[in-house]
Amino acid sequence: MALLIHPPVAKPCEPPAGIARLSAMLGIHGIEHRLLDANIEGLRRLLRMPAPAEKSGDSWTRRAFRNLERNLSSMKDPGLYRNLDRYRRAVKDIGKALNEVSPHLSSVGLVNYEHKGLSPLRSGDLLEAAEMPELNPFYPYFQARLTGLFRDKMPSMVGVSLNYLSQALCAFSIIGYIRREFPAVKIILGGGLVTSWLRSGRRQNPFNGLVEHLVDGPGEVKLLSLLGMDAAKDVTQPDYHLLPRNEYLSPGFVLPYSASSGCYWNRCGFCPEKAEANPYVLIPPQRAIEDLRGLTDENDPALIHLLDNAVSPALLEALAGCDLRVPWYGFVRAGSHLADPDFCAALRKSGCVMLKLGIESGDQGVLDALQKGINLETASRVLRNLKKAGIASYVYLIFGTPVENEASACKTLDFTVRHSDCISFLNLAIFNMPVCGDAGPSIEKRDFYEGDLSLYTDFIHPAGWDRKAVRLFLDNKFRRHPSIARIMKNEP
Question: What is the distance between the alpha carbons of residues 253 and 247, in angstroms, rounded to a whole number?
């Protein structure tokens, strides 16, 4: 029997797609297994703790705990999401309650976990978290939960899915507890973050003696192999039946689905996908549509979340020609398909409610130098077409790339202001250079984060447009423009 664990802390509004895909593969090959979403269970366990007595004089803390059950219930009410101020207050109050029950040196939030003494970027700190699992704020939860599961039926293997830095310290606390209390159980560690570690030049297992296997890339075939079986059947549909589908903090079941891995463009300069040489694997569009129809019938979702790095034009065409009867959203490239207003209208009719677009820069020279394959005139038409069709746009911008300077950033400001009436949400990021990327001989690298597991490196910007200068530009100029400030307020 295998146990697959999704550790805290990650987004609590939808189930983990990774272990759901593994569950489907194990199930179709007749392998007994269980799934444990320790993220949503652990967060809910923390939120049942009483307010600390020493904080009873804090009016915000009193309000947060007084309204906690009501706020948690309201997160499942569609009406809450029609009032951004109410939603924001509910989320902040839930986060406040979580933070107040966090033990000394720890800080737990709805999407993050930090420890003042330990860093997820250092393998030594992860090993320390494994050696002292009782110091983790989720320890009372996972001690009782895992002990119960193991007494019920001892697994021969535990797989831990680690995708985000916010999960790393908790993941190793769980691993350390299992290794200490159940030393005969084999432990496998996989997921997106582990893949990035392994493809960033760290081929050796820094956790030898604690973790038997690190899995690079999709884990279905590898997991079957470790269980002594070959993959006789191909599975593309995830299986969410073993997860607590009614416990997530969302107004209905959010269905995650990935129709591809990797990126079909895969040419952008300094992109982690390219730097890590992640191959692009596409599920045939018609099969993806069949999967989505089947998953919709089985799960009755309120929303479909397409997880692809970029939904392929072929899948967009297939989606435009069908009605899934469920609203959906995903990440796309601002290409020629979306420059057609009739195509955007067809997507809206199919259920599309939002598209995420990595436009990155408002300077065509920057985009060309980064090989983004984006034409700003096309991007402009795309934004206006989506607005006209009634599809929200979530635009991603990156500042501080080696080919950008302040004049380029000002062009991005101008582009964003000109299209502010078409942009629903903005994500502003300061560029991080992948540690395994090809920076070229003209760029001098230097240490960015202290830690042997860092995926990024600092560099000396050729134009002096360093992180401090970029941050000042964003804070003092970009975000303060009235048209942009209005959009930023939409981000809860």
Answer: 9
Q: Read off φ and ψ for residue 185, nearest 5 degrees.
A: -75, 130
Contact 351, 395 (CB under 8 A): no
The tens digit of pLDDT for each residue in 232-274 reads 777 789 999 999 999 999 999 999 999 999 999 988 878 877 7
Q: Which of 352, 351, 313, 307 is nearest to 331 (CA)?
A: 307
What pLDDT was estimated at residue 236?
A: 80
As given in the structure block, the two tokens for residue 264 are 């079909």
Backbone dihedral angles phi then psi of residue 391, each to the nearest 5 degrees = -105, 125
From start to end of 235-351, where are the E strands?
254-257, 260-261, 281-282, 303-306, 328-332
Three-state DSSP class for residue 30? coil
Q: How deeply is 296 buried, as exposed, middle or buried, from its count of CB atoms within 10 A (0-12, 13-18, 19+)?
A: middle
The DSSP line for 348-361 is HHHTEEEEEEEEE-
Cβ neighbours of residue 190 closer than 8 Å, sequence gap 6 or more: 18, 159, 160, 161, 162, 214, 215, 219, 222, 223
Burial of 277: CB neighbours in 10 Å, binned 0-12, 13-18, 19+ = exposed
pTM: 0.95
Q: Which residues pair with 190 in a beta bridge?
A: 161
Per-residue confidence (pLDDT) for residue 436, from 0 to 100: 75
Q: Give tens-digit pLDDT for 313-351.
A: 999 999 999 988 999 999 999 999 999 999 999 999 999
pLDDT at 440 over 70: no
Q: Specify which residues 115 forms β-bridges with.
A: 106, 118
User: Which CB contacts under 8 angstroms, 24+ apart, belong to 334-339?
Assistant: 334/358, 334/359, 334/374, 334/378, 334/379, 334/382, 334/383, 335/378, 335/382, 336/378, 337/313, 338/381, 338/382, 338/385, 338/386, 339/378, 339/381, 339/382, 339/385
Alpha carbon of residue 272 to chain centroid: 15
Q: What is the dihedral of CA 477, 481, 484, 486, to 10 degrees?
A: 130
Do residues 461 and 400 lie in contact, with contact meaning Cβ atoms separated by under 8 Å?
yes
Backbone torsions φ then ψ of 150, nearest 5 degrees? -70, -35
CA distance between the termini of the chain = 41
| CA R_g for the chain | 23
Query: In Å, how far from its chain's centre is CA 281?
Result: 19
Give CA–CA dist 174/40, Å, rounded: 15
Peptide linkage before 9 cis (omega within 30 of 0): yes
